[in-house]
Specification:
With 397 residues, the chain is an alpha/beta fold. The protein has helices spanning 21-31, 50-57, 75-82, 93-100, 107-114, 127-131, 133-144, 170-181, 215-226, 254-265, 307-314, 330-341, 382-396, and strands at 8-13, 35-40, 85-91, 119-123, 148-149, 153-156, 162-166, 190-195, 200-201, 207-208, 230-235, 247-250, 270-273, 280-282, 301-303, 319-326, 345-350, 362-369, 374-381. Bound molecules: ligand PMT. Residues 212-216, 254, 273-277, 279, 304, 306-308, 322-325, 337, 349, 351, 357-359, 382 line the site of ligand PMT.
Length: 397
């Protein structure tokens, strides 16, 4: 998705070792469609060359307030007015102090005073510097003034110590920016998404599972978040990384998924069950690895709870969306599931089709509503299908 198409982002890089990580931030923002310009403080250029940012942004990088070569007419005002959003990353203690108190003694701090654009700040420094009352106070002042602080993370620091102070990961910084620009038609709504495949143990090393990669559900979680919802993602086995900034709950079995879903159900506005839940589980879980002995081995299976059906019985105002993984009679089986599980709509995918269903990046589906309306979605990326599903959810909520 081009989530940041036509968005203009000004990035202020100040003098910290984490400056190199901002190269990835810029690269990700460009891929998302943003136009990016970079302003560096003089100290930042001690850590990374302006040319690096110039090459990836395809824009000149500004450093000096009074320079022989001027990139823009009345540079600080031009850059201040360019931005839809100003991001400072990494933000040093020195920058935070100057910005909090309105000191404008270089190009970047002057732009901060001149810009009408909202400010996002990602601090990075030694733990003691971050936790110093002066820095804490400066962060508080900036927060009060409306700046969004992207908290530093905990880990190994460049100074050799371990603690809070690492620049937030580029992925998380970009997720915050995407969230900032996202259409907010699900603001104030809480959405529960299930994804991935459940795993039913046979013995300590073997299990019954399925080929779900989690891709479909994780894209739905991302789309819901993009539209401003608070997202809970309950996931079985998956091969992809969960999105940043969702409440992520990892489960293994259908029973565990049921428990976690029921814990959250009362507080959510919608549930989208894209998880591939095992219908059966072994009656007995062998405590030891089963030894090869007889020619045949029979494992007795017992039925798992049907989570979605149970939600259909419990539901009050929640919107319920199911998936149907079918291999024949797609539409009629899917319609039966709408009635059987008391759903608002269902997304039916023929998992035998190439480019649809399990593991692949694309899907082919029909969205079928309770009143019989059918939208056929030809082969498209799971990202695009997720957007369609979420737009329907938003419409109904
Ligand atoms: O994860 P990916 O690799 O991206 O693959 C995506 C997918 C193929 C898993 C997804 O598109 C999909 O079809 N998910 C539903 C799989 C499934 O279990 O379908 P079903 O027809 O068996 O179940 C119908 C509905 O009831 C589903 O919403 C399912 O989550 C739910 N269910 C099923 C069984 C059970 N015991 N409890 C349930 O809640």
């Amino acid at each position: 998705m081009n989530e940041l198409k036509d968005k203009k982002i000004l990035i202020g890089v100040t003098g910290g070792i984490a400056a190199y990580k901002v190269v990835e931030v810029v690269s990700r923002l460009k891929k998302l469609g943003a136009e990016v310009k970079v302003v560096m403080t003089r100290s930042a250029t001690e850590f990374i060359a302006p040319r690096t940012f110039q090459e990836i942004t395809k824009n000149p990088v500004s450093v000096e307030m009074f320079s022989e070569t001027v990139n823009y007419h009345v540079e600080h005002i031009a850059l201040a007015n360019f931005a839809d959003l100003v991001l400072i990353a990494p933000a040093t203690a020195n920058f935070l102090a100057k910005a909090a108190h309105g000191i404008a003694d270089d190009l970047l701090t002057t732009i901060i005073l001149a810009t009408p654009a909202p400010l996002m700040i990602a601090p990075a420094m030694n733990t003691l510097m971050l936790e110093h009352p002066a820095t804490k106070n400066n962060i508080e002042i900036l927060k009060q003034r409306g700046a969004k602080i992207i908290d530093a993370e905990t880990g190994l620091l460049a100074c050799g110590t371990s603690g809070k102070g690492r620049l937030a990961e580029p992925e998380n910084i970009c997720a915050e920016i995407v969230k900032f620009f996202a259409p907010k038609n699900l603001a104030g709504k809480k959405i529960l998404v299930t994804a991935g495949g459940t795993v039913e143990p046979i013995d300590p090393v073997r299990f019954i599972g399925n080929r779900s990669s989690g891709k479909m559900g994780y894209e739905i979680a991302k789309a819901a978040q993009f539209h401003g919802a608070e997202v809970i993602l309950i996931s079985g086995n998956a091969t992809v990384e969960p999105p940043a900034n969702v409440k992520f709950i990892k489960v293994e079995t259908a029973e565990q998924m049921r428990t976690e879903v029921l814990k959250e159900f009362d507080s959510v506005d919608a549930v989208i069950m894209s998880a591939a839940v095992s219908d059966y589980r072994p009656k007995t879980i062998y405590p030891q690895k089963i030894k090869k002995s007889n020619e045949n081995l029979t494992i007795e299976l017992v039925k798992n709870p049907d989570i979605l059906k149970e939600l259909g019985q419990l539901k009050k105002n929640q919107l319920l969306v199911g998936f149907a993984a079918e291999t024949a009679n797609i539409i009629s089986y899917a319609k039966d599931k709408i009635d059987e599980k008391n759903l608002d709509f269902i997304v039916a995918n023929d998992v035998t089709q190439e480019g649809a269903g399990f593991s692949v990046d694309t899907n082919i589906a029909s969205i079928i509503t309770r009143d019989g309306e059918i939208e056929n979605c030809p082969k498209m990326s799971k990202t695009e299908l997720a957007e369609k599903i979420i737009l329907r959810v938003a419409e109904r909520l």
